Amino acid sequence: MVSLNLWKQQLGAVPEEVWDRGDLEALVLADNGLTELSGRIGRLARLRMLDLGHNALAALPDALGDLAGLTDFLYLHDNRLTALPRTLGRLARLRYLNISDNAFGAFPEVVCELAGLVELRASGNGFGALPDAIGRLAQLRELHLRDNALAALPASIGALRELRQLDLRGNPLTALPDALAGLPRLDKLDLRWTPTLAPPPWLADLEARGVLVYR
Question: Rounded to an integer, what distance in angstroms lies between the CA atom of residue 171 and that of residue 192?
């Protein structure tokens, strides 16, 4: 894999020559104090992995959706993002997305268009709700929602038939949808630090079938 690792180089801005590296398949720009990202990133058509974590990005260019080859990882965690570009929905083959620790006022619904997602990390954002469209992520195996403001989950989460791990730690949950009990592949449900939740009776059924329920 052709890669360029510029992690923690105190760049402040991405060197212009990076955008001429059309051969790149992996690009790490994490922890560089970046406040903006050039639309020229759309030229990196071969990228399979992009790490923009631990920066100060408040927005992303529409050109991010031009990265049709982005299949492996997209790290956007620990920035100042309040929204994601609608064009992100074009990344239908992306398998891993991390949007944790940003400033989203609501869950960015464009994420629900990423039909190939296997793992989604969206912790530490203060989301008050998940959209019903979350059920469209039919390939999802891991969903990490720690430390948000979720009081409930939509019943559509029962459509996530491939889901193995669900992390709900630190949310003010008051109820869980019965649909969770029917997820056939679930093997870990983390409910720690949710003192407002009255555990539903079917949690015992999950444990009886071997699901690890942390509470």
Answer: 9
